[in-house]
Design goal:
Elements: E1 6-10, E2 15-19, E3 68-71, E4 100-106, H1 120-138, E5 145-152, E6 164-170, H2 175-191, H3 195-206, E7 210-213, E8 217-220, E9 231-235, H4 247-268, E10 274-279, E11 294-298, H5 313-317, E12 321-322, H6 326-334
Parallel strand pairs: 2-12
Antiparallel strand pairs: 1-2, 3-4, 4-6, 5-6, 5-10, 7-8, 8-9, 9-11, 10-11
Helix pairs in contact: 1-4
This protein binds 5,6-dihydrouridine-5'-monophosphate (H2U) and zinc ion.
Length: 346
């Protein structure tokens, strides 16, 4: 593997990333993030996601005991947008009406338990909720794509520590899944093989970027990772969407989500922030033989619980750049326990 500057290709997005392995030792005098408090109460009377509490607009949450799903009170996309005519007729200034539905999925009534600390059956319930909501939204005529995601931690702009995820669904295929549809379709048409399955087979052979593997899923720091501890989680089976998973695969998914997130928390002994989300095949009712259900984890931390990677100057103006290699990042994650969370280890 390269020891000096090089670039790597992401076959899913067909974009390049710059890798500078020699740069990880540079001194840091820059911004230091606030360490998040490690002790939250099981119930917070001021939390708008806790059971029985009031949300914005005065709606009261039920005294829920499992997962809890509601339509986002401040949805970025609205279901019935009037079809506005664009007054701007210049071809360089295109705009279109866009509609959709946004929901919030609370993992459990517990204000203090994030994915790595939830019991496996509870994580399975979360997967079931994501699946049920995805099916419900995808069945609508006006929905072309369903994005399940979790923004975790204040550095990721998460507004509330109560463990929750979001689902945004809309009438067009957004940019990132559109790139992945094009690349996976081309690969499948040329080889009759699935791009992500071929990729994961090779990662299992090479082994140096593996983070966690179980019967039905493999997690790697991808060869083309942008974020320092980025993870790509890929299903082994034929599932293109969450509702294609059988019950054994759902159990396996819960298991690997827990393993990945325990390793993440153990890395800097902090509740590890990230944006994660599932890329499911478009909600067009077609089979999508080219598509493999997968999830991306994009965590911002670089050196410690308080020093993050900034995507700024060169990254904004040219292309993404990383310092530690994906191989080093994967090795550091592999060296940590994936069964004992640092908080329970005392
Ligand atoms: P984040 O913390 O991941 O940003 O998500 C919280 C979401 O909850 C956010 O999208 C919604 C916000 O719009 N929300 C409600 O729907 N009702 C509320 O009373 C507060 C926040
Ligand atoms: Zn809460």
């Amino acid at each position: 593997m390269f020891t000096s500057s090089h670039r790597r290709f992401n076959p899913l997005t067909r974009e390049w990333v710059m890798v500078s392995p020699h740069r990880a030792k540079r001194p840091w005098l820059g911004q230091v993030e606030k360490r998040t408090s490690d002790s939250l109460p099981a119930y917070d009377p001021d939390c708008y996601l806790c059971p029985g509490n009031e949300r914005a607009g005065g709606i009261k949450n039920p005294a829920y005991t499992g997962t809890f799903v509601f339509d986002n009170d401040f949805s970025a996309l609205l279901p019935a947008v009037p079809h506005e005519k664009d007054e701007n007729t210049h071809p360089l200034m295109k705009a279109e009406s866009e509609s959709g539905i946004c929901r919030v999925v609370c993992f459990s009534p517990r204000h203090d338990l994030t994915l790595p600390e939830l019991d496996l059956p509870v994580i399975q319930n979360v997967i079931t909720a994501w699946t049920r909501e995805s099916v419900d939204l995808a069945a609508r005529q006006d929905i072309a794509y369903v994005q399940v995601f979790e923004n975790k931690g204040a550095v990721m702009g998460c507004s509330n520590p109560h463990p929750h995820s979001q689902i945004w669904s809309q009438s067009i295929l957004p940019n990132e899944p559109a790139k992945e549809l094009a690349s996976q379709t081309d690969y499948f048409n040329q080889s009759q093989k699935k791009l992500l399955h071929e990729y994961i087979k090779e990662e299992q052979r090479q082994k140096d970027r593996l983070v966690a593997v179980n019967e039905y899923f493999t997690a790697v720091v991808p060869f083309w990772a942008i974020w320092p501890f980025e993870v790509l989680l890929v299903g082994h089976g034929s599932a293109a969407r969450l509702n294609d998973l059988n019950s054994a695969e759902v159990e396996s998914l819960a298991d690997i989500l827990k393993r990945i997130t325990i390793r993440y928390d153990n890395l800097f002994e902090t509740s590890f922030p990230y944006s994660m989300g599932f890329h499911q095949a478009p909600a067009d009712g077609l089979e999508h033989k080219e598509w493999v259900l997968h999830a991306h984890f994009y965590p911002p931390l670089l050196r410690s619980a308080t020093v993050k990677k900034f995507m700024v100057g060169y990254e904004l103006l040219c292309m993404p750049q990383r310092d530690i290699t994906p191989e080093v990042a994967a090795q550091r994650l592999r060296e940590l326990s994936d069964s004992v969370h640092y908080r329970s280890a005392g």
